[in-house]
Amino acid sequence: MAPQSKKKTYQVIVDQLKEHFLNGDMKQGDKLPTERELASQFKVSRTSVREALRKLEMKGIIETRQGSGSFIKSIEFQSFGEELSSAIVNTERKLVYEMLELRRVLEMECAYLASHRATSKDLEKIRQALEDMVIAKNDVELGLKADVNFHINIVSASNNTIFLTLIQTLNGQLQDNIRATRMQRFSNPERIEDTIDEHKQIYLAIASGNGELAKNLMENHILQIRKEFAESSLHHLKG
């Protein structure tokens, strides 16, 4: 169900642009919606939109003018519409995979270190984030915030200042990553409780000082996210 819904969203945007183009409302030289507007319409991160627009500019399909925005150069809409949709979809998918790769390496080690180094205050922050996830399970934005805090608090509990600085620097990408994967996972309501339980088991392993278990649970959590996202992408391509 989720992949079909996602594909439908993209198709709606392309159809809307096509309608504007055919009706004479959009033509060569016209300005595209802003990055924020495109991200909202396509339900992806602004980072993905920015990278996609950069690719389209390199292909000569659009032109980006400093301080003014992006403008259509390709006179043939069909090419433009397909390129825009494809570029955004592919860029989003690539960024999600790359961030999951980084998270797997970083968060596995941090979960292990946190199980040995976390103070009572550190554990309380992780527990509170978990509790917030439960309370906000039906609220997209609050749930996202709690999920992000849970993972950042584990990195913080490793008491490695370099790791913490790294994840704080990548905070925007982390939020984009968790938002994209939560959107895919929670299209099936049953996965909400499963996801909360995965986080709970990670917390309990850290709190009990079981480093190997915490590390393995974190790896399984991230690998499961990647697996589900890959399956969703495959269905999207087949659809």
From TrEMBL:
<keyword id="KW-0804">Transcription</keyword>
<keyword id="KW-0238">DNA-binding</keyword>
<dbReference type="GO" id="GO:0003700">
    <property type="term" value="F:DNA-binding transcription factor activity"/>
</dbReference>
<dbReference type="InterPro" id="IPR008920">
    <property type="entry name" value="TF_FadR/GntR_C"/>
</dbReference>
<protein>
    <submittedName>
        <fullName>DNA-binding FadR family transcriptional regulator</fullName>
    </submittedName>
</protein>
<dbReference type="InterPro" id="IPR011711">
    <property type="entry name" value="GntR_C"/>
</dbReference>
<dbReference type="InterPro" id="IPR000524">
    <property type="entry name" value="Tscrpt_reg_HTH_GntR"/>
</dbReference>
<dbReference type="Pfam" id="PF07729">
    <property type="entry name" value="FCD"/>
</dbReference>
<feature type="domain" description="HTH gntR-type">
    <location>
        <begin position="7"/>
        <end position="75"/>
    </location>
</feature>
<dbReference type="GO" id="GO:0003677">
    <property type="term" value="F:DNA binding"/>
</dbReference>
<dbReference type="InterPro" id="IPR036390">
    <property type="entry name" value="WH_DNA-bd_sf"/>
</dbReference>
<dbReference type="Pfam" id="PF00392">
    <property type="entry name" value="GntR"/>
</dbReference>
<keyword id="KW-0805">Transcription regulation</keyword>
<dbReference type="InterPro" id="IPR036388">
    <property type="entry name" value="WH-like_DNA-bd_sf"/>
</dbReference>
